[in-house]
């Protein structure tokens, strides 16, 4: 709404003057006229506005003239109430309440007082929409809870105290549903409630014993009467109990077990929809939190719940039919483009995605809409339109209800009512208001139509194309007819495709499908067959997708996902046709199918900071003690981003170097969170370890990456070469209730990190971890102190271990310790070395690797002859391959960094080669040749990995690159007479 009201129309001035005269007459009768000046000029000015708008406020001031003074007391009209202030005011009003009749009277008068205050602040623009709805909801919470507490004491006096079988006292839980649950109550809402109690039992201490259920039924009846029954003072809130199990025919109160059993066995989709907003508004808050946790699996399925789409679509159609049948076009809540449609849009996404995306597990619709924008479920522009429309519609609803405190959302038809609404919402006349309203509702209706729309609406000739394949799948056609259709559709091996379809139908998983799942499969398969024909190689696409179909046969919600999202199915076919590795990954972990829903996100990899923040935000939504869910979140994060990386690589939107960057950033983001989780768990169990100076450690621990992760060169399926280093006092005990020595603490910390990375769950392992590069290898300590690591590197390490250190860097952990590790690395690598001895040791190590890991031709010494197609070339291990380039770089760093410390700046081979060129140590053309060869080899290895093939190619490939690398190897590391291995 605008910040100020326009000038009052002449048609409303007489109404204002009438109400003002009545109030002044009431002041005279109450003897308060002489005190009018105490109310102040601001009050008088705003009073004129409010009286012109609200007959309800005018009536309350006439009936109770002293209310004006209570309103201005402590500035309550001109300021927002502090948290808890409203409840405190009610508690003061209920002091010394002696009977149910007196309770009812005081609740109603309190409600009238607060209703006037809330309407006043809303009409005068002192309160924004969220404050108005929050105050109304807080008032309801306070009235329900304080009435419950008073009546509970009364019932315990009469009937005894309800206890469970162990004698533990029981208290009722009151769930607020709908707008109350979402803290979005309007000016004249009814309140939807559900009553529950924890456990069965009986009362004790009363005149006669009652079952707990009977006790709470009587208490619930009294609570409803206290709030709902009309008296001379009106009512507090109209109470609606129809959302409870079985509706009006069900018991008024249920035990937790009964509620859980009902929702698990009989809960309907509309009840899931309603339960999204459930909140404990009164009674036992702690027990209520347990109840909501019990019911959460009913509301939010663990994975993507596209199976809910049919129910949502039916509900949407019901909404549309109701609008048409009941003539609700002038209803701002229920009409087309109204408040209910905005809420439906948000809650549809919550039901479908909320099980996996906990950020959607919230109640207020404005928060849900913002999350839809933040997480790319809806475009930001669409969310902004829905948000603006919702706020305008809610302001309109409040204006309608502020007039008479009447539960209505219907637009007025009389001229005075129309003039009032237009003026209250800041418009010059009804036509201007109606034009804005129609525009807002039109935008909502457009977005509403797009939510869970029929997937065929946007497809060109979808039904005819799919219907052609129904007889193929359902067995109507005989084999010759099927083969003829497959051939005509472009299948090169029609008999093979037909056999695969028959094998799928005859598989144990498909035969075991329940009726609903089989119906979904029968709808999905004709669509799949139709779209497979669009691929360049339909045989390959079908061959690679069918294992996924079989894998998800018993989780057919994934079939619904692909049926409902033709674009996702098309992306799936493209990716699977391009890469059997991707097809296998999706078949093993179908949860990542969600990533196919947003092609823009699928092919737009985030940068390092975005990756880290995305994972951190996802883990923040999970309770700290829920390790299982944390591990599943970590695994889903990796699977989803691996798919995005592979898709971008196949599409050509992500070059090789960026692929490795992305994979490495992802690993670092995961390691960071794994370390935080492991550290938090260890500290909670044992307390903090000590430093040498006696102070307590604050994650004085780093994870050092070697090899591909250290060199920012991770590939698909790479394991992680890691070393753990700490900077604590290994002898001093931790400061927790169960203290252990620092050395044990850090060892167990390292074990927890490895456990979280290696453990196989339903979503697989995060990474295979190789710790053999730690000091003394497998026989050494799992975690080293920086001092012992330094001692080993300076006094005991072999040359090959220093070669490995060239590509080592601290990935995550303590920044201070990272700086000290970098300094140590520079000290070790930058020492003066005997270049002749170094050359022999590097060459000998390389020859051992060729002998053990190279192809037969390389082991036989074929390194410079003409390479032929018959001789396979191992991209990594053979002469002229990746390892030769890596060894040349490592030799150069070890030999020359004592004079050129800039060689220690980076850990990846490409940039080290740049530094070698900048220092004039290797000619520019030679550096370019090595870099191009290195990138070409790695790109080929990536492509082969995506095809599930080993890193070997025909021997006649990369001929020039191989010869160039071999030539440079002979220049940089010429053959030497062998000498015995010695320690550095």
Please summarize what this structure is.
This protein is 59% helix and 5% strand. The chain is mainly alpha-helical and 984 residues long.
Largest sheet: 5 strands, mixed
Number of strands: 14
Unreliable stretches covering 5 or more consecutive residues: none
**CATH class category of the largest domain:** Alpha Beta
Which class of secondary structure composition applies to the elements?
mainly alpha
Shape: globular
Mean pLDDT: 90
Could you tell me the radius of gyration in angstroms?
36 Å
CATH-defined fold name of the largest domain: Beta Polymerase, domain 2
Give a structural overview.
By secondary structure, the chain is mainly alpha-helical. The chain folds into five domains: about 220 residues, Beta Polymerase, domain 2, CATH 3.30.460; about 140 residues, Up-down Bundle (Four Helix Bundle (Hemerythrin (Met), subunit A)), CATH 1.20.120; about 130 residues, Four Helix Bundle (Hemerythrin (Met), subunit A) (Up-down Bundle), CATH 1.20.120.1510; about 220 residues, 2-Layer Sandwich (Beta Polymerase, domain 2); about 140 residues, Nucleotidyltransferases  domain 2 (Four Helix Bundle (Hemerythrin (Met), subunit A), Up-down Bundle), CATH 1.20.120. The protein is built from 43 helices and 14 strands. Strands 2, 3, 5, 6 and 7 form a five-stranded mixed β-sheet that branches. Strands 8, 9, 10, 11 and 12 form a five-stranded mixed β-sheet that branches. Helix 34 links the parallel strand 9 and strand 10. Helix 17 packs across helix 18, helix 24 packs parallel to helix 26 and helix 30 runs parallel beside helix 32. About 45% of the residues are buried. The mean pLDDT is about 90.
């Amino acid at each position: 709404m605008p910040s100020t009201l326009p000038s009052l129309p002449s048609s409303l001035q007489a109404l204002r003057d009438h109400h003002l005269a009545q109030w002044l007459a009431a002041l005279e009768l109450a003897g308060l006229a002489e005190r009018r000046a105490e109310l102040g000029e601001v009050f008088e000015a705003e009073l004129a506005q409010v009286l012109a708008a609200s007959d309800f406020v005018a009536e309350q001031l006439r009936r109770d003239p002293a209310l004006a003074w209570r309103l201005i007391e402590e500035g309550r009209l001109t300021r927002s109430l502090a948290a808890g202030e409203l409840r405190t005011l009610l508690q003061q009003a209920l002091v010394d309440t002696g009977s149910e009749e007196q309770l009812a009277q005081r609740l109603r008068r309190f409600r009238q007082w607060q209703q006037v205050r809330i309407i006043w602040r809303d009409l005068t623009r002192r309160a924004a929409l969220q404050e108005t709805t929050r105050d109304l909801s807080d008032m309801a919470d306070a009235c329900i809870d304080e009435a419950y507490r008073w009546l509970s004491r009364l019932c315990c006096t009469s009937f005894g105290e309800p206890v469970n079988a162990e004698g533990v006292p029981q208290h009722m839980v009151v769930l607020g549903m709908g707008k109350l649950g979402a803290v979005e109550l309007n000016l004249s809402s009814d309140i939807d409630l559900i009553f529950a109690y924890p456990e069965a039992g009986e009362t004790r201490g009363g005149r006669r014993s009652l079952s707990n259920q009977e006790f709470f039924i009587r208490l619930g009846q009294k609570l409803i009467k206290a709030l709902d029954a009309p008296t001379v003072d009106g009512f507090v809130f109209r109470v609606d109990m129809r959302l409870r199990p079985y509706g009006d025919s069900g018991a008024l109160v249920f035990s937790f077990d009964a509620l859980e059993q009902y929702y698990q066995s009989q809960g309907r989709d509309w009840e899931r929809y309603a339960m999204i907003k459930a909140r404990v508004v009164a009674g036992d808050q702690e027990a209520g939190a347990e109840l909501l946790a019990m019911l959460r699996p009913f509301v939010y399925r663990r994975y993507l719940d596209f199976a809910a789409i049919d129910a949502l679509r039916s509900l949407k159609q019901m909404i549309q039919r109701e609008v048409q049948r009941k003539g609700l076009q002038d209803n701002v809540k229920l009409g087309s483009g109204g408040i209910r449609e905005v809420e439906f849009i948000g809650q549809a996404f919550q039901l479908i995605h909320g099980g996996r995306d906990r950020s959607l597990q919230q109640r207020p619709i404005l928060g849900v809409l913002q999350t839809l924008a933040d997480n790319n479920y809806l475009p930001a522009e669409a969310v902004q339109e829905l948000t603006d429309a919702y706020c305008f519609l809610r302001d309109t609803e409040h204006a309608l209800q502020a007039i008479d405190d009447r539960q209505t959302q219907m637009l007025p038809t009389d001229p005075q009512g129309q003039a009032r609404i237009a003026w209250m919402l800041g418009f010059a006349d009804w036509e201007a208001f109606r034009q804005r309203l129609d525009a807002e509702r039109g935008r909502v209706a457009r977005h509403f139509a797009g939510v869970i729309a029929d997937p065929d609406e946007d497809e060109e000739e979808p039904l005819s194309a799919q219907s052609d394949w129904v007889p193929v799948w359902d067995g109507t056609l005989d084999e010759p007819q099927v083969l003829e259709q497959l051939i005509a559709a472009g299948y090169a091996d029609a008999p093979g495709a037909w056999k695969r379809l028959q094998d799928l139908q005859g598989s144990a998983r498909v035969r075991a499908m329940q009726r609903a799942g089989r119906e979904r499969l029968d709808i999905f398969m004709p669509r799949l067959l139709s779209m497979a024909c669009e691929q360049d190689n339909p045989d390959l696409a079908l061959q690679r997708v069918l294992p996924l179909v079989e894998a998800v046969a018993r989780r057919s919600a994934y079939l619904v996902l692909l049926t409902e999202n033709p674009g996702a199915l098309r992306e799936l076919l493209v990716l699977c046709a391009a890469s059997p590795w991707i097809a296998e990954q999706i078949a093993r972990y179908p949860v990542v199918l969600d990533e196919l829903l947003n092609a823009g996100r699928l092919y737009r990899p985030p940068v390092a900071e975005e990756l880290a923040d995305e994972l951190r935000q996802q883990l923040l939504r999970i309770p700290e003690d829920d390790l299982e869910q944390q591990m599943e979140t970590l695994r889903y994060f990796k699977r989803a981003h691996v798919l995005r990386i592979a898709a971008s690589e196949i599409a050509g939107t992500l070059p090789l170097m960026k692929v490795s960057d992305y994979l490495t950033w992802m690993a670092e983001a995961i390691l960071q969170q794994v370390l935080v989780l492991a550290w938090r768990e260890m500290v909670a169990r044992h307390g903090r370890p000590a430093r040498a100076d006696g102070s307590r450690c604050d994650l004085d621990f780093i994870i050092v990456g070697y090899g591909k992760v250290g060199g920012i060169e991770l590939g698909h399926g790479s394991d992680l070469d890691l070393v753990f280093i700490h900077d604590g006092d290994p002898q001093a005990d931790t400061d927790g209730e169960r203290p252990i020595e620092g050395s044990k603490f850090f060892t167990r910390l390292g074990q927890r990190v490895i456990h979280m990375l290696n453990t196989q769950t339903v979503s697989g392992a995060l990474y295979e971890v190789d710790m053999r590069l730690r000091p003394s290898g497998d026989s050494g300590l799992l975690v080293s102190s920086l001092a012992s690591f330094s001692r080993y590197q300076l006094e005991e390490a072999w040359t090959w271990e220093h070669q490995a250190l060239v590509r080592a860097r601290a990935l995550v952990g303590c920044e201070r310790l990272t700086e000290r590790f970098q300094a140590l690395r520079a000290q070790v690598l930058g020492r003066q070395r005997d270049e002749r001895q170094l050359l022999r040791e590097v060459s000998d190590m390389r020859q051992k690797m060729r002998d053990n890991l190279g192809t037969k031709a390389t082991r036989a010494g074929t390194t410079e002859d003409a390479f032929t197609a018959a001789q396979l070339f191992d991209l990594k291990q053979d002469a002229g391959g990746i390892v030769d380039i890596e060894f040349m770089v490592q030799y150069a760093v070890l030999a020359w960094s004592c004079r050129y410390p800039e060689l220690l700046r980076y850990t990846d081979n490409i940039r080290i080669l740049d530094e070698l060129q900048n220092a004039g140590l290797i000619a520019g053309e030679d550096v370019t040749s090595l870099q191009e060869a290195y990138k070409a080899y790695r790109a080929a290895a990536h492509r082969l990995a995506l095809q599930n093939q080993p890193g070997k190619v025909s021997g006649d490939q990369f001929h020039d690159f191989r010869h160039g690398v071999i030539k440079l190897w002979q220049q940089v590391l010429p053959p030497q007479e062998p000498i015995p291995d010695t320690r550095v």
